[in-house]
Amino acid sequence: MPHSSDSSDSSFSRSPPPGKQDSSDDVRKVQRREKNRIAAQKSRQRQTQKADTLHLESEDLEKQNAALRKEIKQLTEEMKYFTSVLNSHEPLCSVLAASTPSPPEVVYSAHAFHQPHVSSPRFQP
């Protein structure tokens, strides 16, 4: 006996009646959309937080970079000053004059061990 399309015969029907099915689908669709909306909102918040963190880190690194560049400039000036002091001291140095005469390369290598007897006016030990 063929199955009739009578809606009262629920032995073969696995889903709710059509009106109830639409309502159930709509509820699930609304819930899914709400869940997706919340997930998207959280994702945007995380993205904004990450951008803010990177911006702050970038600003901090720029400040550090500026401070290091300033220190390099100061140290370069200090090196120029000490080179000038050394160059003006070499012709007058009795310690270097008393040492054995040697080519200029050796005289300069001795500077690593030479203790100056004139202290710098800027740097007192």
What structural keywords apply?
single chain; mainly alpha; 125 residues; rod-shaped; 3 helices
Characterize the structure shown.
By secondary structure, this protein is an all-alpha fold. The protein has a domain at 26-91. 67% of the residues lie in helices and 0% in strands. The chain is built from three helices and no strands. The protein has helices spanning 18-89, 94-98, 104-110. It is rod-shaped and about 110 Å long. 0% of the residues are buried.
Topology, element by element:
Elements: H1 18-89, H2 94-98, H3 104-110
The termini sit apart by 113 Å
Biggest sheet details: none
Tally of DSSP helical segments: 3
Determine the strand fraction and express it as a percent band.
Answer: under 5%
Form type: rod-shaped
Helix-and-strand structural type: mainly alpha
Rounded to an integer in angstroms, the radius of gyration calculated over CA atoms is 43 Å
Secondary structure: helix percent: 55-70%
- Total strands: 0
Low-confidence segments, given as residue ranges, are 106-125
Overall pLDDT, averaged? Answer: 78
Q: State the order of secondary-structure elements, H for helix, E for strand.
A: HHH
Family: Belongs to the bZIP family.
InterPro entries: AP-1, bZIP, bZIP_sf
Region (Disordered): 1-58
Protein name: Basic leucine zipper transcriptional factor ATF-like
Q: What is the compact description of this entry?
A:
The protein is mainly alpha-helical. It has three helices and no strands.
